[in-house]
Amino acid sequence: MEVIVQSDQQKASELAAALIAQQIGAKPKTVLGLATGRTMESVYDCLSKWFESKQLDFAEVSTFNLDEYIGLAGDDVNSYRHYMNEKLFSRINIDPKNTHLPNGMAEDIDQECEHYEQLIDDINGLDLQLLGIGRSGHIGFNEPLSALRSRTRAKGLTPQTLEQNAELFPGGIEEVPKRAITMGVGTILDSKRCILLATGQEKASIIAKAVEGPVTSMISATALQLHPRCTVIVDEEAASDLEQLDYYRWIFANEPEWEPFR
Ligand code: GLP
């Protein structure tokens, strides 16, 4: 794992977007794992801008999102499918048939989860998985006690998550579905590379636990310590509870790989 601290939210988002752009430049047929949430909005703004200025081409890119609420159709404004269409897919030249999210309206949810895993397998896995982090420490919707080897499945959401995500529902907490389909922790760990982006003071304490705490299924993000190539990008606020901050800064300052992004 490596931790990169950027001065502010905009710079942190730009770095995450730049790594995605670099990945697509190196492999036009890239398979991206994507995330939703407020944190990702500026990443998607950057990618859309770079597409408009012809610096990026999504023609051959495929995407798989981490999760979707159970019971919300793709045209529901609160669904993650709607979020992705609005914030990214409609703004770039990706082929809609190459964009995937679990179907939260599937009649047989278990079968839908198996099918989703199969699709990822058939395409040879995820080249780069983008991740945010919930206040409960979840990645995707892998709530506390999610098995570290779990695969795509249905999960019940914690009261803390319902409350956090209610801010995005016009009707408040009553409208937030109580269950979601999510890639498992094991599915995420199988990605070839992953990037966790967290910004703002409210993420500081959970980021410190995810990066420096012991690996535990109570905090799914700690499982990223087991990932062979995980980059954690934080702004100063989200980094503020990390004990080994000077060490991370020193590594970044002395790592030639990061030269182009300084
Ligand atoms: C949701 C998503 C997560 C995301 C989290 C953080 O719960 N399922 O994948 O990381 O929101 O959201 P925000 O960026 O709004 O803090």
Description:
The two termini are 19 Å apart. β9, α7 and β10 form a beta-alpha-beta unit. The model has no long low-confidence stretch (mean pLDDT 97). α1 crosses α2 (41-52). With 262 residues, this protein is of the alpha/beta class. The chain is built from 9 helices and 10 strands. The chain has one domain (2-255): Rossmann fold. Strands 1-10-9-6-2-3-5 form a 7-stranded parallel beta sheet, with helices on both faces. Strands 4-8-7 form a 3-stranded antiparallel beta sheet. It binds 2-amino-2-deoxy-6-O-phosphono-alpha-D-glucopyranose. The site of 2-amino-2-deoxy-6-O-phosphono-alpha-D-glucopyranose (GLP) has 14 residues, from α5.
CATH fold-level label: Rossmann fold
Query: What is the residue-averaged pLDDT?
Result: 97
Instruction: Give the radius of gyration.
Output: 17 Å
> What's the structural domain tally?
1
In DSSP terms, counting alpha (H) and pi (I) runs of 4 or more, how many helices?
9
Which regions have little confidence, pLDDT < 50, spanning 5+ residues?
none
Give a quick account of the main beta sheet: strands, pairing sense, barrel closure: 7 strands, parallel
Under the CATH scheme, which class? Alpha Beta
Shape: globular
* Helix and strand pattern: EHEHEEHEHEEHEHEHEHH
